[in-house]
Amino acid sequence: MTRRVRTESFDHTISGLLGKRADLVREALRHNPTTQKIDSGIQAIDRALAVLGFEGDADAWMPHRKREALFRRGELQRAVVCELRGAEAPLTRQQIAHAVLSARGGNTENRRVVSDMARRVGQVLRTLKKRRDVESLEKRQGLRMWKLK
Predict the structure, then answer these.
(1) For residue 105, what are the β-bridge partners?
(2) Cα distance between the two ends of the chain
(3) Separation CA 6–CA 4 (nearest Å)
(4) Which residue from 44, 54, 60, 142 lies 20 to 30 Å from 81 (Cα-Cα)?
(5) Does residue 109 lie in a domain region?
């Protein structure tokens, strides 16, 4: 038997509904996103959240998708070295990231994708610098330029 508890807010109920909504969305993504039963369940939970006074973004509780791996182990490092080998002049990590993405067919128009790749290229370049395979030169406007040794 469930004991009745009186509280001032509906925080626990809202949290439970958001968790169930995330489970339903995960199930819809796994199976068929147009499943009528799952869709109507999500809509019912959204209506209940509105009645309880939830003002946040229910989509923020959505399950995150896994990032698609563009590279296997060591492939990004080989791609960076290949780009530096083919370059006539030293390159910035942004230039290397853009070249690697375009060579792999990645989305070079999305700034977030390019900046994420530039961050990963920077990590690779620091590793290569520790191994003394590349060297960095500081040039224009504080940007670090990279070249093979």
Answers:
(1) none
(2) 74
(3) 7
(4) 142
(5) yes
The reply to whether 140 and 90 lie within a common domain is yes
In this structure, the answer to whether residues 50 and 85 fall within a common structural domain is no
Query: H or E stretch including 136?
Result: strand 134-138
The per-residue pLDDT for range 7-41, each reduced to its tens digit, is 677 888 888 888 888 888 877 766 665 677 888 88
DSSP 40-80: HHHHHHHHHHHHTT--S-GGGGSPPPPPPP---TTHHHHHH
Give the Cα-Cα-Cα angle 32, 60, 114 (nearest 5 degrees).
90
Contact partners, residue 145, CB within 8 Å, separation at least 6: 90, 91, 92, 136, 137, 138, 139
Residue 12 bridge partners (DSSP):
none
pTM of the shown model: 0.55
